[in-house]
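Reply to dn_fold:

You asked what the input looked like. This is it:
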Amino acid sequence: MMTYMYAIMFVTVVGSQGNGLAFGSTIQIAVSSSPDSPVDPNLQKLLGIGVVGLVALAQAHSGGFSVHLSNAIAAYKIILLMVLSVAGWVVIANLHSSSAKQAFGNHHGKSNLADAFSGTTTSAYNWGVALLLIQRAFHGYENANLIIEEIRRPLSDESKVFRRSAKYAILILGSLYVMTNVAFFAACTSTELYKTSDVTALFFQKVFGPSRHARRWSAILRAVSALGCVISHTYTLSRVKQEIGRMGILPLPEFWAKSTRTGAPGPALFLHFLFSSLFIAVTPLNSTNGYLIMSILSTWTRTWVAGTLIESLFLTF
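and this is what came back:
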């Protein structure tokens, strides 16, 4: 029962729908002639389905290129987090541009911390969503676990090397996440962060000064990040779905277990594209919580399944 529960959840819900929708919205802003033009939700869905489909098709023909591109975007994300962190220190040291000081005044780090917990909610919904979003932020780490057999083996103790690398990766990434949040709160007021739809654009203007191109460049940065997530998730999740097919859980297991001439899991890539596109198509973007629900849906279901599995282990022993 546990095997089927996990397999059905992974095949149907775990996909690239959240990042596909994020790419669809950010790429519209990036190529728009007007910085204030609204995002077309239908076009957002079409672009999201298109990018997931193109990535799946590209990986079916050449998986190696996807790996190199994913690694390059991963390095770009680390550099971006480092730049944001350093920019936060610049604001705290009161070294940000004079145009930003004239337009927005001094930094707001101290004022944000003066009464940081005012208005704190005890709503279980808000706490739950916050925890799910935090879990989602670290989900990329799981990609290495899902394709561990494809990672080049070190000459020394491989399990020791992998454990040490995992610890360093989580420590570095966690530190950069915290420093990025510190940077945002140092430059922006809590009210601004709560009301803005683009924190990065607001932050860059607070550091470098007002610019009508801030929203566009912020969208470009986020579009590249979303594309990297689609590439890495498609690569890893399709291989897990192929293994699920080989276990005989899905109908026609021989078909889902097939690979292309390049060794890519062709049918599993199609399965990944199918369910990701389905969830993108049914996302209620006319609702303010539509994207939020879809982006944390897989995290929510995985949390429930993981809790059930842990409980079953306790009952077993």
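Residues 2-316 form one domain.
Hope that clears it up.
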